[in-house]
From TrEMBL, chain B:
Entry annotated with the keyword Membrane: yes
Keywords of the record: Membrane, Transmembrane, Transmembrane helix
InterPro entries per the UniProt record, alphabetical: DUF7261
Transmembrane segments: 28-49
Protein's name in the database: Uncharacterized protein
Pfam families xref list: DUF7261 (PF23922)
Length: 211, 330
C-alpha cells in the first residue's frame, strides 16, 4: 500500500479525536464551577448529613427533657412576641445569637443546646413553629421562633412535633400563671385545634446552614 | 527523541514525496497526544461521577429511616402528652378517661395525616387498648392517718411511672450517707419477695440536694447531688432518673423496672422533707391502686398501645408501640 494513502486515515482519526476533545472539554467546563464553602459537592453533602443528624438529635433530647416545650411556650401575650425578643425586630422572633450568652437567656435549656450545637460553631439556625389555623386544619401557619436570615442552598432541616396541653403554663416571665386553656382567642400565637385536654400540636422545624 | 521540526521548506517533508513516512510521524504524534488527553479528561469525569453516585446511593437509606422515626416520635409524644393531660384533668372514672384518650388519638391521627400529607406520606394511627391505673398526688408531709412518718403511697403496685418528688430544699434534713438511714426522708420500695430498696433525699454536707440509694435498710450510696441555687423546689424524678434538670442514672432499682411480683411504695420520715409527690401506678390486679387517704388518688390511664402505619413512595413502616410516659427504661 502506498504510504501516501495512510494520511487520510490519520486525518480522520485526528478529526475524531479533536471532536471528542471538544465535547469532553465542554462537558468538563459545564460541570466545573467555582468551589466555595457553600457550593454543593460530595464533601458538602456529608456535612449536610451531619448537620441534619445533629439537628434531629438536638430536637429529640430537648423534647425528652421538656426544654423544647418550655421554649415553645415562652410567649408574652401582652407584646404578642416571644419573651425577651428584641423590640427592634420586625416580628415575634429572636434574630441572632448576640450577646455573651447567645440564646441561653432567652430560651433556657433549648437555647443553650442551640448555642452549643450550632451558634458556637458558626452555623446559623432558624426555628419555625408551624401550626394549623382551625380544628379543620385547612391552612398551616408559621410563627418564627428564631430567625437568623435566609438559609443557603445547602441548609439541612429537622422537625419534631410538640403536643401542648390545655393546662400547660406559659414560661415567659410574668406570664407563668397563665395556662393555654385560660387564654382568650388570639392571645397565643397558635389557635386551639386539638380536642380537650390537649390545646394544639406545634411542629418545630429547625433549619441549619453554614454561615 | 523524534525529530518533529520542520526545518527549511521542503515539499517532500511537508506534503509527502515518494517516501512520506517522515511527514506522517508528526501527525500521528499529534493524534496520539490528543487521544491521551481525551482519555485523561474522560477518566476524570467518570471518576467524579462514580464518587458522586456512590455518595448518593449510600445516603438515601439513613434519611428515610429518620423520617419513620420522626413519625413514630410524633405519635408517641403526642399520645404520651394526651394520656398525662387526661390524667391531670382528673377524669370521673376509668371509662371516661379511656374515652378521652380514644378521642384524642383520633384527633392526633387527623393532625398527623394532614401534616405528613404535605410531604407525600400517608399515616394512620389507631388506639389498640389502654391499661388502667391510678394517679396519686399529695403533699409529702402530714399525709398519713396513722404514722405521720410512714405513709403508704401505693399498695400492690405492678408498675410505676411519672414518680416525681418536688422537694423544698429548705425543708430537707441535713444528713450524710450514714445518718440518712435513720434521719433522712426516703421512699421505701418494698417488694414482697425481692427485699426492699430505699431512695433517700437529704441536704448533703456541701448543702446540695443529695439522692442516695440503699438496699434492705443498709447504709446508702449517694448517686447524685444538685445545688439548690435558691430554687423553691427541686424535682427528684425517680422513674425518669433525673435530679433537678440533670440526669441521675441508677436511682430507680433495676429489679423494679419489670418486677415479677407486686411491691408497695411508702414515704418514710416524711417530716424530714417538704414538697409534693406525684406518681401514676398500675395495680397488679384490677384497675385501682390503693393509697393512704391523705393522698389524692384519681382514676387514670397508665399506658396505651397504639398502632402506627406510615407509607411513602419509598418507605413502608408499621409498628405497634406501648406508650407509658415517664416509665423507667429497661
Amino acid at each position: 500500500m502506498n504510504t501516501r494513502n495512510d494520511r487520510a486515515q490519520a486525518h480522520t482519526l485526528e478529526a475524531f479525536a479533536a471532536a471528542i476533545l471538544l465535547v469532553a472539554g465542554l462537558t468538563f467546563a459545564l460541570q466545573a464551577t467555582a468551589v466555595t464553602p457553600l457550593s454543593a459537592s460530595t464533601s458538602n453533602q456529608h456535612i449536610e448529613n451531619q448537620q441534619r443528624a445533629v439537628a434531629n438529635d438536638l430536637l429529640a433530647t430537648s423534647a425528652e427533657n421538656g426544654d423544647l416545650e418550655a421554649a415553645v411556650l415562652r410567649w408574652n401575650t401582652t407584646n404578642q412576641a416571644f419573651a425577651s425578643s428584641p423590640p427592634e425586630v420586625d416580628g415575634p422572633a429572636y434574630t441572632q445569637a448576640d450577646g455573651p450568652n447567645g440564646f441561653d437567656a432567652a430560651l433556657g435549656g433549648f437555647g443553650e443546646a442551640l448555642n452549643r450545637a450550632f451558634a458556637d460553631r458558626q452555623i446559623a439556625v432558624n426555628v419555625d413553629l408551624r401550626h394549623y389555623n382551625t380544628s379543620a386544619r385547612t391552612e398551616r401557619l408559621t410563627t418564627p421562633l428564631i430567625d437568623m436570615g435566609t438559609p443557603s442552598d445547602n441548609a439541612a432541616s429537622a422537625t419534631r412535633t410538640v403536643a401542648l396541653a390545655d393546662d400547660a403554663n406559659l414560661t415567659a416571665p410574668n406570664h407563668t400563671d397563665s395556662t393555654l386553656g385560660e387564654l382568650s382567642d388570639g392571645e397565643f400565637y397558635a389557635t386551639e385545634t386539638a380536642t380537650d385536654p390537649l390545646f394544639t400540636y406545634v411542629e418545630v422545624r429547625i433549619v441549619v446552614w453554614r454561615m | 527523541m523524534a525529530d518533529v521540526s520542520l526545518g527549511p521548506p521542503d515539499r517532500d517533508r511537508l506534503f509527502g514525496g515518494e517516501d512520506a513516512s517522515e511527514a506522517d510521524r508528526g501527525q500521528l504524534l499529534l493524534v496520539a497526544g490528543l487521544v491521551m488527553a481525551v482519555s485523561l479528561v474522560t477518566l476524570v469525569v467518570l471518576l467524579n461521577a462514580t464518587i458522586y453516585s456512590e455518595n448518593v446511593a449510600t445516603r438515601g437509606v439513613a434519611s428515610a429511616d429518620g423520617e419513620a422515626l420522626e413519625v413514630r416520635a410524633t405519635a408517641v409524644d403526642g399520645t404520651g402528652e394526651l394520656i398525662d393531660a387526661t390524667n391531670r384533668a382528673g377524669p370521673g372514672g376509668h371509662g371516661n378517661a379511656t374515652e378521652t384518650v380514644r378521642d384524642g388519638v383520633t384527633d392526633l391521627d387527623a393532625e398527623m395525616s394532614r401534616s405528613y400529607a404535605e410531604r407525600g406520606g400517608v399515616t394512620h394511627l389507631e388506639l389498640l387498648g389502654v391499661q388502667n391505673g391510678t394517679r396519686i398526688t399529695g403533699a409529702i408531709t402530714g399525709n398519713a392517718t396513722g404514722d405521720p412518718n410512714a405513709s403508704t403511697l401505693a399498695r400492690d403496685v405492678d408498675r410505676t411511672r411519672g414518680f416525681v418528688l418536688d422537694v423544698d430544699p429548705g425543708n430537707l434534713t441535713d444528713a450524710n450517707a450514714t445518718s440518712a438511714v435513720d434521719d433522712a426522708f426516703h421512699v421505701d420500695l418494698d417488694n414482697s419477695t425481692g427485699g426492699s430498696r430505699q431512695v433517700y433525699v437529704y441536704n448533703g454536707s456541701d448543702g446540695n440536694v443529695t439522692v442516695a440509694v440503699g438496699e434492705n435498710g443498709s447504709v446508702p450510696a449517694a448517686r447524685c447531688a444538685v445545688p439548690p441555687d435558691g430554687r423553691g423546689r427541686v424535682a427528684v424524678d425517680l422513674t425518669g432518673e433525673r435530679l433537678g434538670d440533670r440526669p441521675c442514672p441508677g436511682i430507680w432499682p433495676t429489679t423494679l423496672v419489670a418486677p415479677d411480683d407486686a411491691y408497695d411504695i411508702a414515704l418514710m420520715n416524711a417530716s424530714a422533707a417538704g414538697g409534693e409527690v406525684t406518681a401514676t401506678a398500675r395495680p397488679v390486679s384490677g384497675d385501682t391502686v390503693t393509697a393512704d387517704p391523705g393522698f389524692g388518688a384519681t382514676p387514670a390511664v397508665y399506658g396505651a398501645s397504639i398502632e402506627l402505619r406510615y407509607r411513602t413512595a419509598e418507605l413502608r413502616f408499621e409498628t405497634a408501640v406501648r406508650v407509658a410516659p415517664g416509665e423507667p427504661d429497661a
